[in-house]
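Final paragraph of the annual report: two paired records, presented back to back.
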Amino acid sequence: MTKSAATSLAPDVRPREVWAWAMYDFANSGYTTVVITAVFNAYFVSVVARNEEWATFAWTAALAVSYLLIMLTAPLIGAWADAHAAKKRLLLVTTIGCVTFTAALALVGSGDLWLAFLLIVASNYFFGTGENLCAAFLPELARGEALGRVSGWGWSLGYLGGLLTLGLCLAYVTWAQAGGASASQFVPVTMLITATLFALASVPTFLILRERALPQPGRHDLIAESFGRVLATWRDARRHRDLARFLLCIVFYQAGIQAVVVLAAIYAEQAMGFTTRDTLLLILVVNVAAAAGAFAFGHVQDRIGHVPTLAVTLAGWIITIVLVWAAQGPELFWVAANLVGLCLGSSQSAGRALIGYLSPEAKRAECYGLWGLAVKLSAILGPVTYGLASWISRGDHRLAILTTGVYFVIGLAVLAGVDAERGHRAALAADEGG
């Protein structure tokens, strides 16, 4: 890491520790890329649910259940982590859970609907909870003016991790298909590849990343204390109205993002006629563009501001959805796929950094828990909207993607009322006031 990069870090943070933190993004991105976006979702619809009209809705329903569970527990886990300085310990628990249940997906075959449903709920629950905990380390590692840049490093390295996992799975699928293997034979192996890489790549995080927070005095009754802290944050909403408004903005624009991420492979196969190999190549390209977008827009965000950067990316999402809907052949669809990658990496990085910028230092893990709650609510709204639209329209995936694109328009409108500097001053005032 260069000297200029090192000046982006908090005074007691060394570059290798930021690398170790970013390696968790590298590790867990394989799960979302292979299980949620590229392979298992399409496998669930075509093989597990046997292409029934309700198959896409069933997939989105499984994810909705997992996200609902995360919504119910994320603020409590964040508050407990703050009070007990336990982010790293809890992150280890969630990692073991996600790795274990991802590997168990290898047991799912044709017709095993309820087994697949339960394993997706469990693995995605542990993934989402761990994602919140990992994000809560960001404000401890980066200087306030460099949150966007450091967040971008994590997201960009994360997409590289997704690329590695996806590339290995693509190589295996290509080899297996050349030998005449069916999806029910090669998809289970990709689940084992994904789980193994997640486990191995997360090791640096647990060996090097430090837990800088100190346990906070007082009673440590998990339920009562956590609920009390979360309710106090909501009661304090007037002092943090920009944070509250941005959380609402996240619910809407992330609903559109989650629909695209969760249903990309299903759309490619059902609407565009892609094969599994074609879809893997598509997601590979999307991840390359996403890594570039996260890295580049992290620097742009620190230069022009959090809100303008996010506004640009949301406008890009709106254009992208229109292109996907209009695409009748692979050429325009591939153009849209590259735009998806650029918008995905930049908007995800920008959102995570802005939450840190608007959050009081003493409640950062808790605020990231609220961020996770907003993202998970969006992950219910967007995919379920798509699933219902495709079911009601008897498989019209073009109509479904256009319907979920409305969420980006609403998100952009809500973002217009967010003043990042005013919100940051409110966060600083909260810290000074105790």
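The closing record of the year follows.
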Amino acid sequence: MSEALESLQRRLQYHFTKSALLTQALTHRSYSADHNERLEFLGDSVLNLAVSGMLYQALGTLHEGELSRVRANLVKQGTLHAIAQELHLGNLIRLGEGELRSGGAKRPSILADALEAVIGAVYLDAGFEKASALVHRLFDKVEINPDMPAAAKDAKTELQEWLQGRKMKLPVYTVMSITGAAHRQTFEVQCMIEQLEREARGFGSSRRTAEQEAAQAMLKLLHTVA
């Protein structure tokens, strides 16, 4: 493993048993078919669960809705991008030539996704306990207390709270298509609520953006029929 990746592991305070997982986590789809999107998907779930546990312990006076909004603030792209920058992930992500020329190494969505992929890679390498410990270290400098402001609701959070308030299952987001050149892609995401047999779609330059657009479209649909 290169010295650069060894240095990253020292910053993470975690050393991979399967080094190939770390390499894959830092590989963008523009570089190789063996890219990091599946690890990102896994890491997103691990991150949300680990942060939920942190907030449950730290903010015992907040109710469910407030906890959801604080969590949304902690796991949003901007926060993950800042952490990725502290780890210098932009210098390590493997990108295709077109993505490199267009500044992909500094793009917030790419860096945030890579961070989630690294978390997913740790989960596969050593299990949830180690991955959760990594998340705790990554957010160690973030002050968490009962008085911290809750983040403004984004569309996904608002939709989640709408469904939870009606004792319904959370929506399922599925990437339906990815079109365009590697450095200028458009994602199409479906938001499905199975209990209501309703779906809505959103488009964006990243999976995150498309999911938010799909959630917003679903909210409009639900408010129309309510």
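The mean pLDDT is 89. This concludes the annual technical report; the extension proposal builds directly on these records.
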